[in-house]
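2024-03-11 09:14:02 INFO worker-7 job=invfold-0412 stage=load source=structure_tokens
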């Protein structure tokens, strides 16, 4: 059985590497971002991409969709977008003569895709943003009292622009918490930008060939859940999340001063699931302490609310997460103390 599991891991790693290579033929200089998006896909979570305009966030999502045989849809969020524009609505059916039949048919909205691009999600009103909440959490939408399940796998990738605040509506904490990862897309360096210009200003690149289908994605998601996590690693993930609260006994001084509310249970679950996805990408059947540390920044940065003092001092949530990684021990304090004394 172990040999069979190891073979499945090796096959999964090969498939994931093929998918990543296909995406990176068009998305240059963003290897870390591509890795993190794949963590979200494998861990059955949703991803929020934040970055300045023109960094290829939308192209990344379109390219990933082209590499997967999944239904792709795009929602361009604007202030006048209504919830029914996202979910769809029931429409009265008419006969060819123009007479009403008294029967209603569901006209599905773009949320019924499998890979859904929510472009500039913070430009829509909270009422419209809330239309995504049920879909992201329950993988279903309710229209006129009827619940409609969404096709699996269902994966939302949202983008937001951090520099234009006029005419935007910050995402509520409840919706932010539904994103497994928040990925910050940084500008490319000179070498990567040169390669991008060579690719984008020449002949139009070929459309990527599909690499994986829906059935294989669901298999990989099931395999991701089967990755083992030892109790000490689980305890470390729980300790990291608990220490992000200023009221926790072991909270670092920076957390006590700069944080109003730390991450919760969903954040701890996301930490473990993302670490499992990272292990799966590397063909390993277990999660290491280093896996939890590597995924902590994109998992926790959007789940920590800063206090007034933290905002006034310009302390970012990234800095807070880095402080947690530096100060929270991987083993319980009493074990660390016994090890030093021994």
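2024-03-11 09:14:09 INFO worker-7 stage=emit residues=342
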């Amino acid at each position: 059985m172990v040999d069979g599991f190891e073979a499945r891991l090796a096959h999964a790693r090969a498939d994931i590497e093929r998918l990543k290579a296909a995406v990176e033929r068009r998305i240059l200089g963003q290897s870390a971002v591509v890795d993190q998006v794949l963590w979200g896909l494998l861990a059955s979570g949703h991803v929020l991409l934040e970055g300045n305009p023109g960094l290829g966030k939308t192209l990344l999502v379109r390219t990933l969709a082209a590499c997967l045989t999944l239904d792709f849809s795009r929602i361009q969020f604007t202030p006048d977008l209504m919830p029914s524009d996202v979910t769809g609505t029931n429409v009265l059916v008419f006969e060819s003569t123009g007479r009403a039949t008294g029967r209603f048919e569901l006209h599905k909205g773009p949320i019924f895709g499998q890979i859904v691009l929510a472009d500039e999600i913070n430009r829509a009103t909270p009422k419209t943003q809330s239309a995504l909440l049920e879909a992201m959490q329950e993988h279903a939408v309710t229209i006129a009292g009827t619940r409609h399940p969404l096709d699996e796998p269902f994966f939302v990738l949202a983008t937001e622009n951090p520099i234009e605040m006029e005419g935007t509506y910050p995402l509520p904490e409840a919706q932010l918490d539904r994103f497994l990862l928040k990925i910050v897309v940084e500008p490319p360096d000179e070498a990567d930008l040169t390669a991008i210009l060579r690719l984008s200003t020449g002949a139009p690149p070929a459309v990527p060939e599909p690499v994986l289908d829906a059935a294989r994605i669901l298999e990989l998601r099931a395999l991701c859940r089967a990755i083992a996590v030892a109790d000490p690693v689980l305890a470390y993930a729980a300790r990291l999340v608990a220490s992000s609260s200023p009221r926790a006994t072991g909270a670092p001084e920076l957390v006590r001063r700069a944080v109003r509310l730390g991450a919760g249970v969903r954040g701890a679950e996301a930490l473990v699931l993302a670490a499992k996805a990272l292990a799966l990408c590397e063909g390993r059947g277990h999660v290491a302490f280093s896996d939890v540390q590597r995924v902590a920044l994109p998992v926790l940065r959007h789940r920590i609310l800063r206090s007034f003092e933290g905002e006034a001092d310009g302390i970012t949530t990234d800095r807070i997460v880095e402080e947690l990684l530096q100060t929270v021990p991987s083993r319980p304090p009493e074990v660390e103390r016994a090890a030093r004394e021994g």
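2024-03-11 09:14:09 INFO worker-7 stage=report msg="The chain has two domains: 1-78+114-123+152-226, 227-342."
2024-03-11 09:14:10 INFO worker-7 job finished
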